[in-house]
Specification:
- Two copies of one chain form a homodimer.
- The first copy, chain A, has seven helices and two strands; from the N terminus they run αααααββαα.
- By secondary structure, the first copy, chain A, is mainly alpha-helical.
- Chain A has a two-stranded antiparallel sheet.
- Chains A and B meet through helix 1, helix 2, helix 3, helix 4 and helix 6 of A and helix 2, helix 3, helix 4, helix 6 and helix 7 of B.
- The structure holds a DNA duplex.
DNA sequence: TATTGTTATACTCTATAACTATA
DNA sequence: TATAGTTATAGAGTATAACAATA
């Protein structure tokens, strides 16, 4: 055949130190792991000045876009278990970025809202995150980025 | 309207529950996170019958392909810190899959080798991992997979 | 001095069981 | 009985500092 199967070559790829990694470089799981490590590290450093971890940023985004949701709704939208979400909201509330308002329809739940400072921090974070995203686009190319995102969504679906 | 410009809509995409996720669905970092979660879960379930986590599988692969390496070399090849690698090797040695042989050149370090059982488990794991990989290829399409891997490597570089 | 393996430690993320107060 | 929020707990993964033996 005219074109070679690069998958076969991938299977024998070596690191810079000459270590044979076998099938790992051709594995989507391990490639994802390494890419995510680098990208997350960059986003963590980018949001460092605001003392915001990526997950906390995502929570601010969702509450900012959908004020009044309760904890179960926000955590479900982000794929976080409600049990693990309590600590996150506790932290954001202690920092004065989020408020738990008593819900009028259901006295078991809280309606989540950003404070004024929460909105300011969120706006600053969105700016920094956009710069981080632009850095990735430079790495991938605009076309590369537009190819990558749908492929990742297919994997997550 | 029948068709829409999906690029623009990404920034306002909603979940099935109607929650607005703002810029998150257009973020490479968050898309990576979700994809990796799904893919890793599948690999974990796939290797479950062998009681092998993906990281432990990767360690067996590297030792199998490069017998005689020491702990620092294997851990560096996989991007694991040597300090965190100790527990991993302890576990694999206790299970009888890996042996630490005293190195003849450097009495500080061990030469790592698979046991016979280690080779058997590795072979079985490679078979299961290949099936997992094929499952992902069905999701992505062969072309999708060949687009995805180089993009992920560019991010990790 | 530098490196290999090691221990101790800590922080994040994730996962499960069980409780309380409401519905 | 089911759900929202909570607590307690445990397992991974990842990070740094410091030590003993050896180079």
């Amino acid at each position: 055949m005219a074109f070679q199967h690069h998958d076969q070559q991938d299977a024998a790829r070596e690191t810079s130190a000459g270590v044979n990694l076998g099938p790992l470089p051709a594995s989507v799981c391990f490639a994802l792991r390494r890419a995510q490590h680098m990208v997350t590290d960059d986003l963590v450093r980018t949001l460092q000045p605001l003392n915001l971890r990526p997950t906390y940023f995502a929570v601010l985004v969702v509450i900012g876009e959908n004020p009044g949701l309760n904890q179960s709704e926000v955590s479900a939208a982000l794929g976080i278990q409600r049990t693990n979400f309590v600590t996150i909201i506790d932290h954001l509330e202690t920092r004065g970025l989020v408020e738990r308002h008593p819900s009028k329809e259901d006295r078991r739940s809280y309606a989540l809202h950003l404070t004024e400072e929460g909105r300011e921090v969120l706006n600053a974070a969105r700016q920094l995150q956009a710069e981080h995203e632009q850095r990735l686009t430079q790495k991938l190319g605009q076309e590369g980025r537009e190819l990558l995102l749908p492929l990742l969504r297919r994997l997550a679906a």
